[in-house]
Specification:
By secondary structure, the protein is an alpha+beta fold. The chain is built from nine helices and twelve strands.
Amino acid sequence: MKSLYRRSQFKDQLGQVFANLSALRAHLPASDLPEALVQWLTDLGNLHGVPFNYLVPDEGMLPPESIRFFYLDPNWIAALTDGALSIGRNLDPNPEGPEMNLQKALHPTLRGQVLSNALTKRRRAFGLPHRENSGAEPGAPAVISGFVLRSSLVREYPSLGVNVYPEGHTPNDPEPELLDILRFEQLGKSSDTLVCLVSGDAYRVDLHEAPQALHYGIDCFEADCQVGTNPVTAVKNLYTFGNKTENVDGVTTNSVTMSQTVTPTDISDCFRSKESRVIGMDAVAQKILAVNKNATPPAGTTAPTTIDSAELGFEMIQGVGMVSFIQSANS
């Protein structure tokens, strides 16, 4: 009888704890949730496994060769997560029942771990250090935005890259800042659609070719089919620069300061006469030196007297192809 009484007493105490949300939270251990569960819910929050027709209900909303930008609704994601967790929940009409109270008590810990993991998962995959992101909760992004792109480019150019900037921190601003990318993925090997999610409010999105496509190039080129009769018309936009030498505590350092404007320069006479698509680098170097001698060097510097390989490389390198999308004031 004594054992039955203790069991009954324990059952009553357990019922009282589960009936009170505050008491239940006080008795829960402060341990983390299983890693596998956190990873699965993180992927779900980044729309992995979500049927595409839930995201784009009609094909007319995303026709071929189009891009659509969006904000991720945290209430929608919360409902999605709740639905996933309901798989192991018994039906209970009482919203204050023990099982509902247990889920409410676990929710803050679960949400904190999932949001923090969402910010670090992709960075860890690329071996990058984690950057903290200010938000409504520790480790939680205040806003998650993104875009869906449908284009043949997605299928035919799998090395497509993206840079996303917040307002006031674009490459045209004094302090550029990249937003963390949570997901950037083609939806299937043969799909022409990709989805991108970023932690923050995307103001400028740059879609670009793979960085390894950097190359030497010029800005305007027209070649005649017949070699020998005025074969090439070519222009290169050249930066001018100045050299500066400083001696601090016995250590001498040399630096180069570039101008912020370019000088369009005719380099048509720098091509070989018998090979109209082959440029003479010595001739280009002399052209760069001549442009610099005729320009006023930046304050505190002197005009170069020679052009070395680093300066020639800087002038001749062309960036990869890129398309920028910038949020308008009335969007």
